[in-house]
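Hi all, posting the design record for the shared folder.

TITLE: backbone redesign
STEP: 1 of 1
STRUCTURE INPUT:
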């Protein structure tokens, strides 16, 4: 049964990817960041339905440390495998009866993205829990409406709809509800010049 480009599940339950045979249960050899790791044969694995902060962004170190603590050197079960264009297996990952994807999302180490599958309701509930309890990436450390330094109150924001980096001055419409998600690389600026130098343009909601 084909599960994605370059991936097939053989009758024995072995996953075949790019000429490598991957058993459903594999030992974790290396954790590279908060959502990715290598198994013993150096096949890269990425956890489905989530994004960890990129290196250097708020909570990236904590996310990587947590994933290492949970799975490094242990046998994990890979379910619902797919493959991406980088050749990584995307999977729902279990350690015993614990779903690692759910644990990371629920405790605020990673951002739930989207997912359609057996565990959808559990993952969506985990995301709601992290947001409601302001855990990890949703804590004041990484998820800010008010500037930590009142003198640096310009909000640098990513506009996903237009794939642009924009900044908001305090007099701009929607400034009060614009969130600086530092775990995504958004940031505060002390001047418009600083924002422009970083590649941000003024939001069209501004006068």
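Okay, here is what came back for every position:
SEQUENCE:
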């Amino acid at each position: 049964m084909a599960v994605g480009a370059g991936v097939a599940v053989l009758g024995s339950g072995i996953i075949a990817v790019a000429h490598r045979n991957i058993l459903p249960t594999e030992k974790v050899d290396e954790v590279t960041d908060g959502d990715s790791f290598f198994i013993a044969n150096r096949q890269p694995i990425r956890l489905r339905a989530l994004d960890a902060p990129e290196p250097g962004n708020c909570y990236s170190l904590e996310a990587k440390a947590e994933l290492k603590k949970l799975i490094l050197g242990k046998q994990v079960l890979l379910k619902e495998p797919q493959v991406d264009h980088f050749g990584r297996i995307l999977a729902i990952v279990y350690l015993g009866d614990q779903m690692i994807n759910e644990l990371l999302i629920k405790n605020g180490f990673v951002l739930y993205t989207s997912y359609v599958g057996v565990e959808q309701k559990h993952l969506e509930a985990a995301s709601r829990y992290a947001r409601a309890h302001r855990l990890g990436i949703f804590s004041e450390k990484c998820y800010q409406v008010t500037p930590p330094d009142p003198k640096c109150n310009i909000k640098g924001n990513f506009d996903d709809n237009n794939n642009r980096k924009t900044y908001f001055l305090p007099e701009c419409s929607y400034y009060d509800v614009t969130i600086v998600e530092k775990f995504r690389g958004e940031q505060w600026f002390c001047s418009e010049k600083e924002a422009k130098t970083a590649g941000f343009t003024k939001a069209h909601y501004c006068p």
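COMMENT: Helices lie at 60-71, 100-106, 120-132, 192-197.
Let me know if anyone wants the other runs.
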